[in-house]
C-alpha cells in the first residue's frame, strides 16, 4: 500500500464526507476550477459539480457569512481560507456571530473553516501565520491542529460531522513531508478533544501540536542520545477543547512539563 501524504489524507477525508453526505459542500477562493492553491480540492468540481464546489469572490467575511447561513438551513459547509492568515478578515463574523449563534439564538452552525497555516516554507509575513491564539478564548468555537496524515483525515471528517463550528488549521510544512500508511476502506475518525501520546517518556512532558510535534520528537531523540533523559511528547491534536486528562496523566508521571 503506497504511503499517503498529509495533503492527500486531507483530500481523502473531504472527498469521503462529500460522498457520504450530500449536505456537505465546499466554498472558497479558487477551490473549483483551479483546485485550490495547494491542490487540496483538485478534481472536486468535476465529481461533485458547481452547486457543491463553489468558487467565491476574494472576501473571507463573505465566505464565512455564506457558510453560516447555509449551516442554519441544514447544510454542512467547509469554507477554505486560501491562506489562514486572512481569516482575520472574517474575525468579526466568526467570533461575534458564528461562535455565539447556538447559545444566543439556538441556531446550530456546523461549519468548518480550514486553511493552510504556519511557517517554515518561505511564505513571508502574510502567508505564514498560526492564528489560533486569536480564537482560543472564543466560546463556542472549536480548534483542531492535526500533526499526522491519519489525523489530517480523521479530524477533517470529525470536524465536518460536528454540530459546532470548527477552525481546522493544516500546517503547510506538513503537506507533502509527512506520509503514512492509511488503511483502505476503514473509517478514520479522530475524536475532537482527545490528545495522543506521540512518544512515551518518564522525565519530562512536552505538550505540543501541529508541526511542532515533529520538532519535539526530534528534540526528544537528541536529548535521549546526549543526556539519557526520557521525554514524553503529547500531541494535543485539539486546542479547544483541550484534553486536560491526558496532560495531567503525563505530568503525574514526569513531574515536569514544557
In words, what does this structure look like?
This protein is α/β, with parallel strands linked by helices and 258 residues long. It folds into 2 domains: 4-180, 3-Layer(aba) Sandwich (Rossmann fold), CATH 3.40.50; 196-254, Rossmann fold. 35% of the residues lie in helices and 19% in strands. The chain has helices spanning 6-20, 44-48, 60-72, 91-98, 101-105, 132-135, 149-161, 212-227, 244-254; strands spanning 4-5, 24-28, 53-55, 76-80, 112-117, 142-144, 166-171, 179-180, 196-199, 204-208, 231-235, 238-240. The strands form 3 sheets. It has a 7-stranded mixed sheet with strand order 3-2-4-5-7-6-12, sandwiched between helices. The chain has a 3-stranded mixed sheet with strand order 9-11-10, sandwiched between helices. Helix 2 links the parallel strand 2 (24-28) and strand 3. Helix 3 (60-72) runs parallel beside helix 4. The longest helix has 16 residues, at 212-227. The protein starts with a strand and ends with a helix. The mean pLDDT is 96.
Amino acid at each position: 500500500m503506497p504511503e499517503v501524504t498529509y495533503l492527500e489524507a486531507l483530500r481523502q477525508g473531504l472527498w469521503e464526507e462529500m460522498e457520504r453526505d450530500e449536505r456537505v459542500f465546499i466554498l472558497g477562493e479558487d477551490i473549483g476550477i483551479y483546485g485550490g492553491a495547494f491542490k487540496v480540492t483538485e478534481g472536486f468540481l468535476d465529481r461533485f459539480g458547481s452547486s457543491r464546489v463553489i468558487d467565491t469572490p476574494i472576501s473571507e467575511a463573505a465566505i464565512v457569512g455564506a457558510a453560516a447561513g447555509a449551516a442554519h438551513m441544514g447544510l454542512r459547509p467547509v469554507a477554505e481560507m486560501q491562506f489562514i492568515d486572512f481569516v482575520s478578515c472574517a474575525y468579526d463574523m466568526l467570533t461575534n456571530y458564528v461562535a455565539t449563534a447556538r447559545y444566543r439564538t439556538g441556531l446550530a452552525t456546523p461549519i468548518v473553516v480550514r486553511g493552510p497555516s504556519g511557517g517554515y516554507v518561505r511564505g513571508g509575513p502574510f502567508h505564514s501565520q498560526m492564528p489560533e491564539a486569536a480564537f482560543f478564548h472564543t466560546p463556542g468555537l472549536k480548534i483542531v491542529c492535526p500533526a499526522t496524515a491519519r489525523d489530517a483525515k480523521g479530524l477533517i471528517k470529525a470536524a465536518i460531522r460536528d454540530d459546532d463550528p470548527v477552525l481546522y488549521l493544516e500546517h503547510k510544512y506538513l503537506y507533502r513531508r509527512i506520509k503514512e500508511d492509511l488503511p483502505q476502506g476503514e473509517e478514520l475518525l479522530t475524536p475532537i478533544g482527545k490528545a495522543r501520546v506521540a512518544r512515551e517518556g518518564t522525565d519530562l512532558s512536552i505538550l505540543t501540536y501541529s508541526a511542532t510535534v515533529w520538532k519535539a520528537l526530534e528534540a526528544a531523540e537528541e536529548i535521549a542520545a546526549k543526556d539519557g533523559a526520557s521525554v514524553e511528547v503529547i500531541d494535543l491534536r485539539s486546542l479547544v477543547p483541550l484534553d486536560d486528562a491526558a496532560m495531567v496523566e503525563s505530568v503525574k508521571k514526569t513531574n515536569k512539563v514544557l
